[in-house]
Amino acid sequence: DTGVSQDPRHKITKRGQNVTFRCDPISEHNRLYWYRQTLGQGPEFLTYFQNEAQLEKSRLLSDRFSAERPKGSFSTLEIQRTEQGDSAMYLCASSSSKETEQYFGPGTRLTVT
Amino acid sequence: AQTVTQSQPEMSVQEAETVTLSCTYDTSESDYYLFWYKQPPSRQMILVIRQEAYKQQNATENRFSVNFQKAAKSFSLKISDSQLGDAAMYFCAYRRGTYKYIFGTGTRLKVLA
Predict the structure, then answer these.
(1) Which of A55, A102, A109 to substitute to test the interface with B, most B CBs within 10 Å?
(2) Which candidate among A14, A65, A79, B9 keeps its CA 20 to 30 Å from the CA of B59?
(3) Other beta carbons within 10 Å of B25
(4) What is the DSSP track for chain B?
(5) Measured distance CA(B40)–CA(B60) in Å, rounded
(6) Please, what sign has the CA dihedral across residues A6, A20, A89, A33?
(7) In sequence order, what are the residues at sequence separation of 6 or more whose Cβ sits closer than 8 angstroms to the Cβ of residue A61?
(8) Start-to-end C-alpha separation, chain A
């Protein structure tokens, strides 16, 4: 297993468009997290999945954001009607229930013009 | 609410010297985990070291060690024999419960040759 992967690595979109990001966690990990990181800041928690169940969603996530993890494997994060304030790095991480360490993906950098 | 504060936006250290990065946190819980993560430029975030709050002994991983002061809610990272490859953003993080991670704003470490 090569670790957590994210696709695409970079996305440039125009304001008002919808975008979807994908995260493939480490295969045996049942926990999956999405974070948003803006310049000069640490990662901010967006949402958490245990297997296919979305157990927590941050108040930072407006109704334009939705995340899914069908069958408890890969996850997608969709942003509808993007705004310039959505420009950020979107990080995915995974872990197993047996350990405390999160393994991060390389992130998807979103630029909204 | 839990918060994590890193008061040093940037630090510099001479190669082979020792540097300490500061982190304070606020919590009313007695059992939790603390972490230091490293984010090299354009690369994935990786775990450097972790500390379980119920353990009094400070964690150590090779050249990296922590000074955990539970009463003072302080969790500093010491890097000994600094190497050029240590240059990165370092994030202090707190885990609340079983899955909620809260990150500080980070400290950029520069290593001077």
Answers:
(1) A102
(2) B9
(3) 19
(4) --EEE---SEEEEETTS-EEE--EEE-S-SS-EEEEEEE-TTS--EEEEEEETT--SPPEETTEEEEEETTTTEEEEEE-S--GGG-EEEEEEEEETTTEEEE---EEEEEE-
(5) 21
(6) negative
(7) A46, A47
(8) 36
Per residue in A94-108, pLDDT (tens digit) is 999 888 889 999 999
Q: Which residues of B touch A56 (CB under 8 A)?
A: 99-100
Q: Which residues of A touch B91 (CB under 8 A)?
A: 42-43
pLDDT digits (tens, 9 = 90+) for A38-55: 988 899 999 999 999 999
Rounded mean pLDDT of B8-12?
Answer: 96
Average pLDDT, chain A: 93
For B72, the token pair is 């003072």
- How far apart (Å, rounded) are the C-alpha atoms in residues A1 and A23? 14
Beta-bridged to residue A68, according to DSSP, are A76
Distance CA B74, CA B92 (A): 11
Report d(CA A33, CA A94) in Å as an integer: 6
Q: Cβ(B26)–Cβ(B34) under 8 Å? A: no
